[in-house]
Specification:
By secondary structure, the chain is of the alpha+beta class.
């Protein structure tokens, strides 16, 4: 049910420091071994938003400021964003962050109410008065010695920040930035989480990163938990549905039915509960990292993690199974608006099918290949790509490859040459844009031909489709070229009746490369897959584990923090297939299955999105033939 655009929260990734990359990726294999040893130095780690209260409505809190004046959240939040920033005059990291808070308060402009919350009972009144004096009358300073206010907003440390957007809904919860943490200090921050979040919230958008841990002195206060009796549609459930379901399940969306109203959700309650219990919705199949034993929060390396937090799942399932109270309509969020045109903005160029493709009413259609000529007079650098199906009701997914002269230069005997070269654009429901930050872009060569691989799913009515792709060009040549390589094994042979057949492919890196994301591609016999890296100096780490692969969702798993790898490291893509009669999607369990483009064939294809540091955009990669992706080194 979560079909929100997963790319929107990624645009600031490049500034993140690389220390946490390895730590978070190693966390993917924690489950089998218990919790790993914590690092000596640690900065703000991304956490799954639902575990950090994102989307939760905060009640009308009453509190008293340092001067003894009574305050209420209801009055502060009247038409304004409210920022609760925890602080302390005794916690070392909090003291370092006070000047940053003062600067943010002074420069953030109108429309934001700032509340600094000091939850330590033993901080001295004179010290707090001195800190509050730096803020003048631009912020409210509150001493919260019993931690009641901190608990009400879900704060966990003395540097935690909680930002309330529309209808007192938590829109950001985490660190101010990454300048200070446990065991380290930087001269300047690399990621400005709070500033970026405030800019996004003001624009009516989701923050690029909505939830992180905030290194500071840990508070011994209970985390805010919604009592079962308080779970109503308007007060809680509507926000969960809005975050995870409504982008697709709404009028005009690609979901089969809307879920963005109380009546719609009640009408489909049994089905919603079924897909949640089965784990097929929201569509997210990366193996979860285990929850922190103390906080219950889940660290996630994925910028587009769609999974429900346990608290969200618990509340939603309990509500569906109960009397489904509606609650007060005034407690609900304002209706979210969705772009009716292009999500990336008005494209510079749109490339479209020359003629519509006929889609029959029933049965199964083989993949359709459509070539679209660009007629570009020169090479162009593309900052954003958006694929729009002509008929979203029948387009299951689409992959776009470049079929220009450069891509034709490989070995004609290589059945997987195109797949090795990687995809250029893609579409699955709810994931149809690729957007890159300044300094990064994909190349669209002069005279390029776009090869669309279209998978149609007839839905009972004969129709036609005329898919198109819009692009926005970079304003200047990028520093880094975004590239995609395919880890492939075109020699797969899956025996008849095999229920758990394993195949493997690998790529040894001939140069340093920084990994940005993964997109595995199997067909209907695919049941599981995994990416690993084997380091040239020894050691193997799982990067992405998908224990239950679903062909219906060709998802791109985008890293919060790009992962630097070294020349000589080897990427390994392993997949397991079910060619047995027990697989209801299996076209023919009596057949030996080999590589092929149609769904009744199979593929063993692990795409990797990357860039090469030190190589200028447009320059050939060191030691490789022009126009190709990674090549296997024998």
């Amino acid at each position: 049910m979560n079909c929100v655009n997963p790319m929107n929260g990624w645009l600031g990734w490049m500034r993140w420091y690389t220390l946490r990359s390895i730590t978070l990726l190693v966390a993917c294999s924690w489950a089998a071994h218990g919790r790993a040893q914590p690092p000596v130095r640690e900065g703000p780690q991304p956490v799954r938003p639902g575990d950090h209260g994102i989307g939760r409505r905060v009640g009308d809190l009453a509190f008293t400021d340092l001067e003894g004046a009574a305050r209420s959240l209801g009055k502060l939040a009247d038409g304004r964003i409210v920022v609760f920033a925890c602080t302390s005059t005794s916690c070392p990291i909090s003291r370092k962050y006070l000047p940053r808070l003062v600067d943010l308060v002074e420069t953030s402009g109108d429309g934001i109410a700032w509340v600094l919350v000091n939850p330590l009972a033993t901080d001295k009144p004179a010290d707090m008065q001195a800190a509050a004096a730096q803020l003048g009358n631009r912020a409210i300073y509150v001493h919260d010695p019993e931690g009641r206010l901190a608990a009400a907003i879900g704060a966990g440390t003395t540097t935690d920040v909680v930002v309330l957007g529309r209808e007192r809904t938590i829109a950001y919860h985490g660190a101010i930035d990454d300048q200070y943490g446990f065991g380290y200090s930087l001269d300047a921050p690399r990621r400005r989480f709070l500033s970026d979040a405030l800019a996004a919230i003001r624009a009516g958008e989701e923050p690029p990163v909505s939830a992180t841990e905030a290194p500071g002195c840990i508070l011994d206060t209970p985390q805010a938990v919604t009592a079962p009796g308080d779970v109503t549609y308007h007060g809680r459930i509507s926000r969960i549905v809005e975050r995870h379901c409504a982008a697709c399940h709404r009028e005009g969306g690609v979901g089969p039915f809307p879920l963005d109203s109380y009546d719609d959700l009640v009408a489909h309650a049994a089905m919603v509960r079924e897909v949640i219990d089965r784990g097929t919705m929201p569509p997210w199949f990366a193996a979860p990292t285990p929850a922190d034993r103390e906080t219950g929060r889940v660290h996630t390396p994925w910028a587009n993690d769609r999974s429900l937090a346990e608290s969200e799942k618990r509340d939603l399932v309990a509500w569906l199974a109960s009397g489904r109270p509606a609650g007060e309509p005034g407690d609900g969020p304002a209706a979210r608006t969705y772009p009716e045109g292009w999500q990336i903005g008005t494209p510079d160029t749109v490339f479209e099918f020359a003629a519509p493709v006929a889609v029959k009413a029933t049965g199964v259609m083989p993949y359709q290949t459509v070539i679209v000529e660009t007629h570009l007079p020169e090479d162009r650098w593309v900052q954003a790509i958006e694929v729009q199906p002509g008929d979203r009701n029948v387009v299951h997914h689409a992959l776009i490859h470049l079929a220009g002269a450069e891509e034709q230069a490989g070995d004609p005997r290589d059945a997987a040459a195109e797949e090795r070269g990687g995809f250029w654009g893609e579409y699955v429901p709810g994931q149809n844009t690729l957007e890159y930050p300044a300094g990064f872009a994909k190349k669209l060569p002069k005279g390029a031909r776009l090869k669309f691989q279209m998978h149609y799913t007839p839905n009972g009515t004969a129709t036609t489709d005329r898919t198109r792709v819009g692009v926005i060009y970079a304003k200047e040549p990028p520093r880094h070229e975004v590239r995609v390589a395919g880890i492939v094994n075109p020699r797969i042979s899956i025996p008849p009746g095999a229920a758990d057949h394993r195949e493997e492919a690998s790529l040894r890196l001939p140069f340093d490369a920084t990994i940005m994301g993964f997109l595995p591609h199997l067909h209907v016999r695919g049941k599981a897959c995994r990416y690993d890296v084997v380091r040239s100096g020894g050691g193997r780490t799982t990067l992405l584990d998908i224990p239950r692969y679903d062909f219906n969702w060709q998802l791109l798993y985008r890293l919060h923090e790009p992962l630097p790898l070294r020349a000589g490291d080897t990427l390994v893509f392993t997949a397991w297939y079910d060619n047995s009669a027990g697989n209801p999607a299996n076209p023919d369990p009596a057949k030996t299955v080999r590589w092929g483009p149609q769904t009744f064939d199979e593929m063993h294809l692990g795409y990797v999105e990357y860039y090469v540091p030190g190589v200028a955009a447009g320059e050939p990669l060191p030691g490789l033939r022009r126009g190709r992706g990674f090549r296997r080194l024998q």
